[in-house]
User: Fold this.
Amino acid sequence: MEDVPSNANEHCPGTQSEQAGKASSCAAIAEIGEKLSTVKHKILVLSGKGGVGKSTFSAHLAHALASDVTKEVALLDIDICGPSVPRIMGLEGEQVHQSGSGWSPVYVEDNLAVMSIGFLLGSPDDAVIWRGPKKNGMIKQFLRDVDWGELDYLIVDTPPGTSDEHLSIVQYLSATNEVSLQDVRKEIRFCQKVKLPIIGVVENMSGFVCPKCKNTSQIFPPTSGGAEKLCADLSLPLLGKVPLDPRIARSCDEGRSFLNDIPESPAAQAYQKIVQHIQDYCSNREAEQSTT
Ligand SMILES: Nc1ncnc2c1ncn2[C@@H]1O[C@H](COP(=O)(O)OP(=O)(O)OP(=O)(O)O)[C@@H](O)[C@H]1O
Ligand code: SF4
Assistant:
């Protein structure tokens, strides 16, 4: 994404008249490219269906990355029809402020910023049912008008499936994002089609580890061979498996990081291992980019 301002026209192929028609969209892409040129890594979190733990994972990825106080981290929630990030991050009722240089995100820590449509709603229960173009406009505004500052990581929590929001975010962030996936062949095909590098797959709610005897029980038997088979079939890394732990929901409902609450639990350790893979991936990319 760092190169968007200089090659914005590459994103606007077509005849002259088609290009004129796309001019405003290209201008937005260029503007967003300029705005986000100070973001080192943009990580999209995708899932095939709702309720698989994508927002929970995004929030814990943000917490874990921000535990290194030398890193600047931001979490952007573009699940416009069901934003759950404010609750999980303990920010319900917070509002976004306008500053001279745009909207100021809400800070959980000095180095952890959060932006969500939830901050713009009157009440957490307000339903937001917007059609594609309006959603697209809001995503554009989030990327262009939020004063993110210099960031090491921008994590984007997306809605389930592959919808208008996905097409918008991919278009606006251009082709150099990184993706962590939960679930799902359809999303993988989507990423491959739009040429997004895939960091790997996370299997969530993978077995239940009994807190007493530490036995693992398979509550939801894996379909189609589970994440291992999916990753083997598609030559993708399996970043890790997070077991089911009801204490995760409790920490999230109270707006706290489960990683801080019960760091020794198998689920917290699984999250940490996955985060380590993501950090390694990002460091390798940085090293590659500095040599090209
Ligand atoms: N490993 C886990 N063990 C137990 N509960 C979990 C786990 N991961 C997530 N949950 C719980 O599952 C529920 C759904 O999680 P979450 O809201 O993160 O899903 P989602 O995929 O983002 O859903 P949506 O896309 O509909 O917003 C939440 O109550 C969350 O606390
Ligand atoms: S494995 Fe089942 S029966 Fe044994 S201690 Fe754990 S929850 Fe109880």
About this structure: Residues 210, 212-213, 215 surround iron/sulfur cluster (ligand 2) (CB under 6 Å). The radius of gyration is 19 Å. DSSP finds twelve helices and eleven strands in the chain.
